[in-house]
Design a protein that fits this description.
Length: about 240
C-alpha cells in the first residue's frame, strides 16, 4: 500500500515546476561560491575544502531551507486544493501512511538535491583547476546533509499539513534556516532541527561535525524523525474529511 502512495506522489510531481527550481537554484550559490573562492586564493588555502566552505556559505542557511520548505509545501498544497484530502483519506490505506509516503517523497527530493549539489561542487573544482577531489569527504558531507535535511523536511511537512497557506510554512522554513546559524554559533547545532543539515554538511559554520560526533548526530536525527513522523501520522489519522 505504501508503494501505491509513493507512486501516486510521483505522478503528482511528474510535471511540477519544482524540478526547475531543483535544477536552477543550487547553481547560484555554486557560482557565487566558486567566484568567491577564486577571488580569495591568498586567504583560502584549503583548496577543495575551502571551495566547499564557500559553496555552503549561503546554501545551508538560505537556499536549501527554502527549497526544502517549498518541496514540502507543494506536496501538501496539492491536497489542500481541490478536495485532495478527501480523496486521500477515503483511499483503502491506513491514514497514517499518507504522512509517511509524503515524507519519503520529500526525503527522496532532498537526496536528489544533495547529489546535484555534490555534482556542482565537483564541476566547480575542476573549473577552478583543483586536483583530485576528496570524494570520501564529499560523500560524508552530503550524507550528513541528507540526514539533517530529512529532519527539516519532516518538520516542514508537518507545518504544511497543519496550514493551508503555501507561503507561511516557507517563511517559517526560511526563518528556521537563519535560526540554524544562531544555534551553530552557540555550539547547539547538534540538537536544533534547523541546524542539523548545516552541521551534518560541515559547512562554513562555527560548529562542525567531527568523527566522534557521527553516531550522536545520527541518533538525534533518528529521534527527531521518529517523533515528527509519529505526530504527523497521528494528525493525518485524525484529520476530518
Amino acid at each position: 500500500m505504501l508503494f501505491k502512495l509513493l507512486r501516486a506522489e510521483a505522478i503528482k510531481l511528474r510535471r511540477s515546476p519544482l524540478w526547475l527550481m531543483f535544477l536552477l537554484v543550487p547553481v547560484l550559490p555554486a557560482v557565487l561560491g566558486t567566484l568567491n573562492y577564486l577571488a580569495n586564493l591568498e586567504i583560502l588555502k584549503g583548496q577543495w575544502y575551502s571551495l566547499w566552505s564557500q559553496h555552503t556559505l549561503f546554501t545551508d542557511f538560505f537556499f536549501l531551507p527554502v527549497m526544502i520548505s517549498v518541496y514540502c509545501a507543494r506536496l501538501m498544497t496539492l491536497e489542500h486544493n481541490s478536495h485532495g484530502w478527501n480523496k486521500l483519506l477515503t483511499a483503502p490505506a491506513p491514514r497514517g501512511l499518507v504522512f509517511v509516503g509524503k515524507l519519503l517523497t520529500a526525503s527522496f527530493m532532498v537526496g536528489l538535491t544533495m547529489i546535484w549539489i555534490a555534482a556542482l561542487y565537483l564541476i566547480s573544482g575542476r573549473i577552478a583547476g583543483l586536483g583530485e577531489p576528496p570524494l570520501r569527504a564529499a560523500l560524508v558531507w552530503c550524507a550528513g546533509g541528507f540526514a539533517g535535511g530529512t529532519v527539516m523536511a519532516a518538520m516542514q511537512l508537518l507545518l504544511s499539513m497543519m496550514m493551508k497557506s503555501f507561503a507561511l510554512p516557507v517563511g517559517i522554513g526560511f526563518a528556521g534556516g537563519l535560526s540554524g546559524l544562531v544555534f551553530l554559533a552557540k555550539r547547539l547545532g547538534h540538537i536544533w532541527p534547523y541546524s542539523l543539515m548545516a552541521y551534518g554538511m560541515s559547512s562554513n559554520a562555527p560548529q562542525q561535525i567531527t568523527g566522534r560526533d557521527y553516531l550522536p548526530f545520527a541518533l538525534v536525527c533518528l529521534a527527531y524523525l521518529t517523533v515528527t513522523t509519529a505526530v504527523g501520522a497521528a494528525a493525518a489519522s485524525r484529520r476530518e474529511l
